[in-house]
Write a structure and sequence with these properties.
heterodimer, A: five-stranded parallel β-sheet, four-stranded antiparallel β-sheet, 12 strands, about 40% helix, B: alpha+beta, five-stranded antiparallel β-sheet, five-stranded mixed β-sheet, 10 helices, about 15% strand
Chain lengths: ~220, ~450
């Protein structure tokens, strides 16, 4: 899952970056509002964590413009502004959740999972599809009742494809979601991960749409 | 406790009593005199009446009868029945030219010899009684008529008359005092009303007083009270804003501490552990700096005390201050140079405030300086001002930032700063009647100039 962290405080950004990276997220981090808006509008993310007091463009303005562009990206506001009016303004501007500093990292992670779940149209924490059971909380996956060991990238790729199934993801989108800006990836890495997933589950789990991308079919 | 009512009353009653006493004194004195005159006139009249009667050519027996009639009428007058309380016993005696007593009342005093001086006199008889007497000399008929009355009797009457005059005065005074007491109370009512209104106010209320109608004497008091309330409200408001801002600003550093502490808990490797610990320590330092800066801000608030302004040798203070900072600058691989014009520079400042301002400018310069950068501090004098200039070789400031740089808690995305440094310098400059200006140097870097009035 690729997450854009927009936080101008370096020390706090480092901490969140580290914690969410450890959680398996592909975290990209920007420190000002204007470049954050630019990236949000031009790239693919699963989530955004947005501070409000940002240089070059206020967080609320970033959010408003993002929603005006028609984006449904789940956005969690993470701010020191704790007044009720601020929370209302944030939620009304299009935030899906609002968390006040200082906060518990475990709570942040849980809220992010909930946002992902809802954006995938599920209410249950477990993702169950075609005999696969994926638990985003523990990051454990089982197939037909048997635990399956996945590398972090394989887990992420499976999570993306299953959130929800039935969507065609382009190669480019999947590369962005898996690697963001930070990590260098070989050109055929994605294909290698897809190959491993097919081997660990079933060969027809992931369909290749030639020239377009990959798909986990809704009904199997 | 002094009471205006009691004070005023004491004064008024004192004056009233003194006035009344003086008046009464003259009254009594005049009455005494007038009564004496009236009585004297009566004595004289009685004497003439006696003279008229004595001149009548009467036979011996008739004389005796007449004498008795007089004796009864004058000498035994009693204030009873149809009498008047002020009637008095009068004594008389008549001598012929040879000094023989012709007639006399029983109560008449005996004298060794008939008194000779005609007119009024005060005499003492053989029994040591005081008399007021009138002597009428009738040389045509060879008679000397003496009419007298006893002083103590007359004094008794005068006493009674005076008592009757003074009695109403005393009662009147008491009534007047009571009325004055009430009147003063009524006059002071607006004051009592004001006190009651103030007492009835909610203890935390800082709303201005609006007493109507308000006597003109109390208007300045209400105005002064309202001014004071407004000041208190302003100070409280400033304090509340400050506390709210401070609490708000604490959130981010606390979030930093919490995040890194949790990361430390979940660290998978020694490397991660060490990283998180380093962040934690940096976070604690940052929080400490914020708290220190907040305290400095609080101490700069007007009325917060602090060291009083004194005439300070600016060059010396700056040099001492820089000397203390040098080890810290060296540890950050920065070089320091201090240049002064050599002209004496004195200013009326609190040395602490000057050191705080310089410290903040130096911290900013150090934080934005490149490695091995040079920070130049210069001191110059112009007409009426000392200029303390701090130059660094950092990136300078962006025009867009300029307006916000002096705002509280505005920091240029620099996690080291609390966003209070320039605010503090600006506050100090303003309090000293000076200014702080920031200019990007042509050769790169920022030039911060703190100008304070010279003394």
């Amino acid at each position: 899952m690729r997450l854009l962290l927009i936080e101008d405080d370096v020390a706090l950004g480092e901490g969140i970056h580290q914690a969410l990276g450890r959680e398996g997220y592909t975290v990209d981090w920007l420190k000002d509002g204007a470049s954050a808006l630019h990236s949000l509008l031009s790239e693919t993310f699963d989530l955004a964590v947005l501070d409000l007091g940002l240089p070059r463009m206020d967080g609320l303005e970033v959010l408003r413009r993002l929603r005006n562009s028609g984006s449904n990206l789940p956005v969690l506001i993470l701010t020191a502004r704790d007044a009720t009016e601020d929370r209302i303004a944030g939620l009304d501007a299009g935030a899906d959740d609002y968390l006040i500093k200082p906060f518990d990292l475990a709570e942040l992670k849980a809220r992010l999972r909930a946002l992902l779940r809802r954006s995938a149209g599920r209410a249950q924490a477990l993702i169950e599809h075609a005999g696969i059971s994926l638990n985003p909380g523990t990051q454990q996956v089982s197939y037909r009742g048997q635990p399956v060991a996945l590398t972090p990238k394989e887990y992420q790729l499976l999570h993306e494809l299953l959130s929800p199934p039935g969507r065609v993801m382009t190669r480019d989108q999947l590369m962005q979601l898996l690697y963001g800006w930070s990590e260098e990836a070989e050109s055929n890495t994605l294909e290698v991960h897809i190959h491993h997933l097919r081997k660990k589950f079933s060969t027809d789990l992931i369909r290749t749409i030639r020239g377009v991308g990959y798909l986990v079919e809704e009904r199997q | 406790m002094t009471s205006i009512r009691r004070r005023t009353l004491t004064l008024i009653i004192g004056l009233l009593l003194a006035g009344l006493t003086v008046l009464s004194f003259f009254n009594v004195h005049d009455s005494n005199h007038e009564i004496a005159e009236v009585y004297d006139a009566q004595l004289a009249q009685n004497a003439r009446l006696l003279q008229g009667v004595m001149r009548m050519p009467l036979a011996g027996q008739q004389h005796a009868d007449l004498y008795r009639a007089f004796n009864t009428a004058l000498g035994e007058a009693e204030p009873r029945g149809d009498g008047h309380p002020y009637e008095r016993k009068i004594a008389f005696q008549v001598w012929n030219s040879e000094g023989e007593v012709l007639v006399h009342t029983a109560s008449a005093p005996s004298f060794r010899s008939p008194p000779t001086l005609p007119g009024f006199s005060d005499v003492v008889d053989l029994n040591n009684r005081h008399w007021r007497a009138f002597i009428l000399e009738d040389q045509n008929n060879g008679m000397r008529i003496w009419v007298g009355e006893r002083d103590d009797v007359r004094a008794d009457l005068v006493d009674r008359i005076v008592r009757h005059t003074l009695g109403p005065n005393v009662i009147g005074s008491l009534l007047l005092a009571a009325m004055v007491w009430l009147a003063i109370g009524w006059g002071l009512k607006p004051l009592a009303n004001m006190a009651a209104t103030l007492r009835a106010r909610h203890s935390g209320s800082l709303e201005p007083l609006q007493l109507t109608p308000l006597p003109s004497e109390l208007e300045p008091m209400q105005a002064a009270l309202n001014r004071m309330l407004a000041q208190i409200q302003e100070v409280l408001g400033r304090e509340r804003r400050f506390i709210a801002d401070a609490a708000h600003e604490m959130r981010t550093p606390l979030a930093v501490l919490r995040v890194h502490a949790q990361n430390l808990q979940e660290a998978g490797s020694e490397q991660e552990r060490r990283e998180s610990l380093a962040f934690l320590i940096a976070g604690v330092d940052r929080t400490t700096r914020l708290v220190n800066q907040l305290l400095t801000m609080a101490r700069l608030e007007p009325g917060a005390g602090g060291s009083p302004p004194q005439r300070v040798d600016v060059a010396e203070t700056v040099r001492n201050s820089l000397a203390q900072m040098t080890p810290w600058l060296l540890s950050k691989h920065l070089e320091l140079a201090f240049e002064e014009s050599g002209r004496p520079a004195y200013a009326l400042v609190s040395p602490t405030a000057l050191e705080i301002a310089l410290g903040n400018l130096m911290t900013n310069a150090a934080n934005f300086s490149p490695d091995n950068g040079v920070i130049t501090v210069r001191l110059s004098r112009t007409e009426g001002f000392c200029h303390l200039i701090v130059e660094d070789q950092g990136p300078g400031i962006e025009e867009a930032d300029r307006a916000r740089l002096f705002e509280r808690f505005y920091s240029r995305g620099n996690a080291q700063g609390a966003g209070l440094g320039l605010t503090i310098v600006n506050t100090i400059a303003t309090q000293l009647g000076g200014s702080i200006t920031l200019v990007n140097r042509q050769e790169g870097g920022l030039q911060a100039t703190l100008s304070i009035p010279a003394s």
